[in-house]
Amino acid sequence: MAGVKSRLTQDEVKQLQHLLGSRQFSLLYKASVHGYNASIFHAKCDTQGPTVAIGYNGSGYIFGGFTSQSYVSSGAYINDEKAFLFRLKGKEGVLSPLKIPVKTAAGAIYDYSANGPNFAATSSNNYYTYNVADLHGNDLGLIECEVYRVEGKLISKEKMEREKIMEEIRSYKPYLNSVPQIRILVLGPIGAGKSSFFNSVNSVFRGYVTSQATAGSDNTSVTTQYRTYPVKDGRDGKPLPIVFCDTMGIEEKLGTGLEIDEVSNIIKGHVPDRYQVGFLQFCAVQVTSFSTPSLKDEIHCVAIVIDGCKIEILSEKLEEKLKQLRRKVNQFGIPQLVLLTKVDEICPIGELFRIILFVPFLQMRITAEKLGIPLAQIVPVKNYCSELDLSCDVDILLLSAVRQLIRLAESYLDNFPFEKPKKEL
């Protein structure tokens, strides 16, 4: 509303956004400007969709109510299962958010033309249960009343968290000018979900489930070439500051799958995209002559993908190969992060908080002991395998892993001298 300012401070707006899970509000009605008049309130606020009414009293309390339904001056109660009362500030104006969900949705709001915002809110009714002293200090002497339209679809806390992490990844920029994108090498046993991890991360930023890298399961590695996969922000969006590098899976038998000695040439940036992996150990001289790689061509972080369902029964030979792999990567000082996949099969609950609390004390601890890697460098993920649609909980696990890979890569780049930007001629 042009010319009419909100009374809410930035901190109060953040608290309100946290309660509502919404990005923006538009001020529709302000009593000190438009008058304490029910007719004016309804003229400005009816048929506006979801709204939030906020009261300010002389005791410093800021409180109010939210409805997902429109006022229409119906003269009847509005049924709203999403309605709730809230407090932003309590006694003496101290920020102390409180949310009181509706108890009986059928009487959530009284929509009467002769009344302003009316949430049928008394401590003795059956619609909301609360203590009046907690909500507004038993002080209904308002010094201001504002009503805002809640813009757009309400966003859950999980969706807000997903968007927050996505924005962190989008806005990341390596501090070295010579490294426009960090390169993450994805390694692991066959069938653990290496290629599927890239496909899943790519799906999150595309906005739908997709499969660019060859993935699947077989007795031998499905991936036979060394591939580099940039990630775009949307189908036609700009490239993100990360490149995933995928290669053959590690196999138990000698002479099959990716050999540990082949990893050195990949880390040093000597291996071009689409190179047929498996011949590197025989053609090391030819490989190193392909190019003279710079820091931007090298690997900056390694993701080791492990099937969380199989870590307890990992064979001694494969366990030893993974330890050799870690030792090889450590020689270059490259940070590593273990991605424990298939956590939904370990903990088939479908709830993010149960996954991240339950898994670490079991498979993650076993993984740390077997591979000699700190628990802080092991994160649970779930790849998109059979799903046709994205899931917010799955996205958060994937994005959290990518964010940690970026942070580890940044710590590696800290080992190199800072480059001052070149002056324009």
From TrEMBL:
Entry's Gene Ontology BP terms: immune response
Family recorded in the similarity comment: Belongs to the IFI44 family.
The species this protein was found in: Chelydra serpentina (Snapping turtle)
Positions of the TLDc domain: 2-151
PROSITE patterns the UniProt entry points to: TLDC
Gene3D superfamilies assigned to the protein according to its UniProt record, in alphabetical order: P-loop containing nucleotide triphosphate hydrolases
Pfam families: TLD (PF07534)
Protein's name in the database: TLDc domain-containing protein
Superkingdom assignment: Eukaryota
